[in-house]
Model the fold of this input.
Amino acid sequence: MRQVSSRKEMMDLTQEFYNAFKVAPESLYRAPARINLIGEHIDYNGGRVLPAAISCYIKALVSKRDDTIISAYSTNTKSGYSIDLNRIKYDKANGWCNYVFGVFQTLRLAGYHIPFGLNILINSEIPLGSGLSSSAALLDLVTYVANDIYNLGISLKNIAKLAQNCENSFCGLRCGIMDEASIALGLRDKCLLLDCAKYEYEYIDLDLGDYTFVVMKTNVPRSLVSSKYNDRVDECQKGLRAIQQDFNVDNLCELHEEDLLRVEKLIGDELIYRRVRHVITENERVRKFVRALRSKNIEELGRILNASHKSLKEDYEVTGEYLDAIQEAAIYAGAIGARMTGAGFGGCAIALIKKSSFEEFKEKVIDYYFKKVQLEPDVFNVDIVDGPMKVEDY
Ligand code: ADP
Ligand code: MG
Done:
């Protein structure tokens, strides 16, 4: 992944903007993708997650219009649609533009005044549908652009909330706040310890010295995510109901590893118990991970990453053949630790490695993974970066 666009690339994009809208762009904005370091599938169980924004960007070139039309074009999908601000509604025929139009509708419903339309060209190096949150990056970016251009005075925390409302209500996906918050609130060299239920957070220094996180993309699209995701939500609720016979708790993440014996007896069902065991142990891993970050204990971070992957594989069963293969490949290639990131069932994994070993690590991962599943993965270095920003005016 490149971090800075070359002049040639910007000239090409400006040309594409002109081709799409017949006017010149006025401003360039960008927003990052995100990884989740630890705390997987516990956001909907009252737990905390630890995401960070990464140097893999979606960009928007924008110009103001003197009518009330929002016109959007994506260089990724090579498609675009237009809509009148006064007549926005969800329409399957508008494809990806529902994410853009939905933002304007969400802002209007929240009482913000949107006096004129925009031309928006979207260009992204965040792979679509690979678990690095291209959708939240797009929604945060468009909300950020609107906030800036119309001077709406919305905080970054609320930009994420409005973007999430849009994904929930307009686009119809029951996602939590993690993706939108981790992007909007991204800070260089920090990760976000985020309580998704209360929407409270604090920043934790991500000072890894000679070590770094890398992203490994399995190059298999996430399949079955939404149906399996909903199954896991239901299984956790079933486990919670059984536990509530004896424990006075509102969610699974109030329980601790010491409670597991009692929890097992109360649940009875072996599969539901494994789901609950993942949630309880993963929540503890978030605590341990933060402690290890603060004491800069790299080996411990690696052990926790591996334990998280094992739990997601064996207890929660959301990894699948490709994520397992890439995690194994990372360990084989010398990673201190590795695990899937995001919802699972394909998508991406992360590994903690020594910075100086990157080229050798990458080669070994590609080789091992290819031998195992006959697919080439993408392996790339990332920095931990700031959230959305205006890059320049023309
Ligand atoms: P993820 O957020 O993990 O990448 P999602 O399925 O939640 O996966 O979101 C992917 C969808 O977001 C795409 O199918 C598309 O509708 C929209 N999207 C994201 N980035 C772009 C882009 N650059 N151009 C057009 N659509 C995009
Ligand atoms: Mg998404």
Notes: Residues 270-294 form the longest helix (25 residues). The chain has a mean pLDDT of 95. The CA atoms of residues 264 and 273 lie 6 Å apart. The first strand starts at residue 27 and ends at 36.
